[in-house]
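Risk register update: the risk of archive-format incompatibility is retired. Evidence:
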Amino acid sequence: MLLEKAKSLPNKPGCYLMKNSDGIIIYIGKAKSLRARVTSYFKGKHSGKTAIMINQIADFDYILTDTEVESLVLELNLIKKYEPKYNILFKDDKTYPYIAITNDKIPRVKVYRTLYKQKSDQELFGPYPSVAVAKNIARLINRLFPLPKCKSFHKSKCLYFHLGQCLGYCSDDISEEKVGQYINDIRRFLRGDAAQIKKQIKTEINQLNEKLAFEDAQVLSDQLVAIERIYDEQNVEIKQVINADVFGCYVKDDYLAINALYVRYGKVINSKNYLFQIINEPVAEVEAFMHNYYDKHKIDPDLILTNAEYPNLELHTGIKIRKPARGELLKTLKISNANAKEYYEQNIENVKKQTHLIHETWQELARVVDVSSLHRAEIIDNAHLFGTSAVSGVIVYDNGYPNKNLYRKYKIKYSQTNDDYAMMREVIYRRYQKMIIEETKLPEILIVDGGIGQVNAAKEVLNELNLNIKLFGIKKDDKHKAEALINVAGEIVEVKDRKVWRLLMAMSEEVHRFTINYHEKTRNKKTLISELDDIPGIGVKRKSLLYKEFGNIKQMKAAKLEELQKILGEKAGEELYAYWHKN
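Archived output:
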């Protein structure tokens, strides 16, 4: 029947949506010819993940588009909305850091974890392998080049001026020529020319050693090693290319390994590997991967090197995509392909075992909670300190994997913050009412991190919203350790399979970690503000300056009188110092 329906499809571009017997979308694809592509699923033999997916198809829908580019964009949007089980979902929650030279009148050097908040006219360098590496480089630049460190200048020269790390832009008229020279030196360094800055660091290390300041010299030595690792240990160079992303791949047994090399200013500065099962043709899967990748990261290299031509993706992204045939570009792509193969061979057995274990455990969890088709589970936890800084956290598991892109934090707004049940009702209502309005995919099960009281509170809201989500609680013992899974009647749900219990414990620990971390940040911020509020003469602006300079109350209290006076002025600094040292 499905084959006959597929044969009746138009021979036009569009997207198809495969559904299981429960009407849930399990796979979304695009095609130049809907008829040819969808028919291929129901003809001939299939193996691996494709065969498993096809056996679950009960029906399908389709959406026509005018062009292949439109189908590419539509496919991405549909996958983001429905998150089908068998699509490659790009859930890499790591955001690579960038270093920016800001577009201020007098530029500054800053580190950004993501590009979403960036202004288009800021000059970006990266991505770097980790936040620590980017921060070390930015810290070194700020130490060696006396650019401003403050976004809004103080009325008087701050500590950075007296440390020789700023020219005093707030009070002195510094020539644009001098600032421009600093920017050119920084720009040259970030593009890979580290010779000058390395020479400068070595000179400073020698000076510190002569002064017997060995600890400070060691800090600079560590920074020098980090620079050499990034800029010197390179065996790949593309001299005529400024910025290029290289996507090599290796396919075997329905698994696809992708290696991404980030070439910036002729040198590889970062590498990332991915490995997953595939259903579609490898070329189409790589295209879908890159489409998702650039949709999330918003990175704009000058060139993408791949093993195939992707004219539709090139048209959509505006980035030139090339399949090199010769020369150093081909050599670079071959290196990326070799990296992908190496990653496959080193990790495939573990990935297969882990995939099988996760699938098996997830299916058993579905049986335990009596859900015929389990795709999404959510778990909620609350945190507060004697009714203060009350927050909640929600984590999401999709088909056995944590989906960190969907984790959410909530500040308690309306409930009494010493009432756990009221907090639970508030968060569940806010969360699921919004999901209903936005027609977001709902979970099949909801687990509250607590006993029958929390379960009953959640049940009230789900009934009010008329939601058919199965509800459970994780009951704790006197030591706040999980001891049982309970249902809405307060009855213990028997979990015989240790793998399922370990999964439930992992989910409980994850939501607790996520919520507690958010609670601590909220509480620390509130504590900082409230303690400063009690100090006469410290207003909003001075609070901001103190927090920006020292980060926390402990560092403020440890500051010397002169340091406080440089930031707040002579009188206010003396008063604050006296306030904290009056005993």
